[in-house]
Amino acid sequence: MKTSRNSAGTTTMRKYYQLILVIVCFMSIVTLLIYRHEYYRLRYVLEVLNFFGKPGLSEIEFCGPGFNATMLSEILRNSSMEIRETPPLFQQIDENFYSYSSFLRSYQKYDKLTPMHAHNIDTIVIGKAHVPPNFRCNIWLENTNKPKAGRFTYKIVSEPINDFRLYIFQCSLNKNLGKPKGISFYMNDYNINPIHAPINRVIEVNTKRKPRESSSIKFVNNIEPAICVIPNQVPLVSRDSFIEFLVFHHMMGVNYFTIYDSMISEDIIRRLNLLPTDITQWNIQFFPLNYPFIFAKSYSIVRDAIELDCLFRNFRYDKEEAEKVSHAMVMAWDEFLAPRVHNNVKEIFNDFDPTRKFKTLEVKPLLFCLNQADDDRTEEGYPEIMKKTHYYMMSQELKSVYVRNLDAMQTFEDIFTVNSSTKVLPIEILAAHKYTECRDPKQYNPSGMGYNETQMQVFQHKFEGAMTKFGQNLVSNKIYRLYRSGKIWEKNTNEFVRDML
Questions:
Q1: Which helix H or strand E contains 168, and what residues bound it?
Q2: Number of alpha helices (DSSP H) and beta strands (DSSP E) in the chain
Q3: Domain holding 336: CATH number?
Q4: For residue 307, which of 180, 205, 330, 393 is within the disulfide window of CB 3.0 to 4.6 Å?
Q5: Which residue range is the domain that position 116 belongs to?
Q6: pLDDT tens profile 162-196
Q7: What are the contacts of 67-72 at 24+ separation with CB within 8 A?
Q8: Which residues are listed as membrane-spanning (predicted)?
Q9: Residue at a domain's end among 182, 204, 226
Q10: Is 324 exposed, middle or buried (CB count within 10 Å of its CB: 0-12, 13-18, 19+)?
Q11: Angle of CA points 302, 304, 306, to nearest 5°
């Protein structure tokens, strides 16, 4: 009898255990279904945010290295950066290729389609040089939630640089099925779902460009240069260098700046926006720069990608309109265009290419070491770049500044042949001064110091005081004086700033 009761108790306990396991299993399944539902909801929201942007803002405002969705939502909520256009953004297509920005060039004046390939989208891509692209593409149309398959082609636009190469991925439709809003690329593999491929929002490009004419005399557009600014090879810029670069080149006749940099302080941008536009008379656009590569190894190829983005954006302006960009160039914060005889770069471009026939004007670089001794003859209050008056001939490879003449490009395809017509400007007229610490590239110095004064005397160098003639104009500039006074960092509205000028 005792054994029977024990057996009955064991059976009852086993039933309770089974019931508990069933309940736990049921709860686990319900929890998994809830988690799966919330996951797809979140992914859908992020895809919509990535494609259409936050209401009230033009597009995604910022995306830096190490970006994730939490950072994105926080930055979108708090950002004061003024971004008026679709920002470029590196997105991974696969382990070998990264897309940057996409441009739609099928519309003439945005309403007339070209006869062949009604929609043609060019996407700037950085990829491995030894891997041939093999992709398919989808074009996302306005007011539709399903993409249309396009025809994929590509062109190579650069030589290999550290096993990277610059490409243009082209996707086209031969029928007008609607206005394209986005483009995505995916592996040419039918086992891969293309709906999960990252989407680039397309930027419209006006391909109609013709010089204005007055009677029988061909009208040549006014020179309006633009600078697209990229980080230094050590991607940090001081507040002093930031202001000096903008003010100096504005004195040289540049009114349009597009800044590709994620390392600039938010406070600097906020304070810069306080300056009244009728006082500054410049146009500044900020774009974040996220780079999914080791920056030092990929600097040259990223610079080439930014130059293409810069040319694509500025090319789209119809030259029948006034005060639009005619020349565009890419420069880092430590590079300065210094005229020898002229007072600004507009005069130089006009004198050396009056009929605008050269696609490229090449400005040769000169290296000015920041660790050289200051010139005793310069004024006390001048910035550091005015006090360095000797350029050095060292083994460091310096890249020329290439001024791309958009007026010489009659078709969009001319952008890909900008080096076919080049004129080198003599350094006696204009040079690109590069101001950086000079150090032995073969030796690592943890303190970051370069050559000392004794070592600097060994290197061949030449006197060049072209910058000093602009010193007085720079320090007396309204914007520069306001910056040097430090008062702009204490104000919150541009009304107060105006009272200080």
A1: strand 164-173
A2: 12, 24
A3: 3.90.550
A4: 330
A5: 85-204
A6: 889 999 999 988 877 888 889 999 887 766 666 66
A7: 67/290
A8: 16-35
A9: 204
A10: middle
A11: 70
